[in-house]
Amino acid sequence: LRTFAWFGMIFFRFFSLALQLAAFLFNLSTNITLNGENFRANVPLLDVGWTIVRDLANICFIFILLFIAISTIIGNANYGAKKLLPKVIIAAVLINFSAVIARVVIDISNLLALQFWSRFPGGDISTVLGEGLNPQRLLQVSDNFTTGGAFQTLLNIFISTIMGSIIVLVAACVLFAGIIYFIIRLVALWFLIIFSPIAFIGSILPETKKYADEWWKKLFEQAFFAPAYLFFLYLVGKIVNDKFLARLTGTF
Hints:
The chain is mostly helical. 80% of the residues lie in helices and 0% in strands. It contains twelve helices and no strands.
């Protein structure tokens, strides 16, 4: 019987290799995307890109002011100076702090995410999952495992191996998906910072306000994806370390 358990453990460990690789890459991607320095001006892409977009946005102010002046002359109240000039002044001030404002939102989300990430021992997801998805514990042939006779024992080993492998494989897929999303988050936030001046200048005219609203929506979605993901991952870690998997496979 222990020989079958040994073969089951080998089969289980085959899938565990994928989980270990996913955990390693997930730790790496998480530490990168939660590092606030990767969103600072010392990143050349952000510094150069944001400066170019800001200068283009400042040029747009000239055309917006010209448009407001013409609208005021012809008596178009919807685009006159009385209605739009305060927005222009506010946007002209905020546009120079657009990158800072975006980074504040990102820093808040990163700090919240780090609250959950710090609960993983040493900031390592493999430690938590390794303890919860322990093949030696799941496939041990204990007294409870053998009380039903040889057939029942073999059945328990088979169920434990299949269920354990499926759960480990699902866990690996979840981590690989998290790696991809965290990389997308990093790149997306970079571009949101670069184009942040457009968001503030777009808030001036009613026709362009929807683009500014879309920028804010994307910023919050991408920024707070990290704490939401790590929160649910933390819950999963608590569940698997609460012997949930063992109870599910009947080994406890």
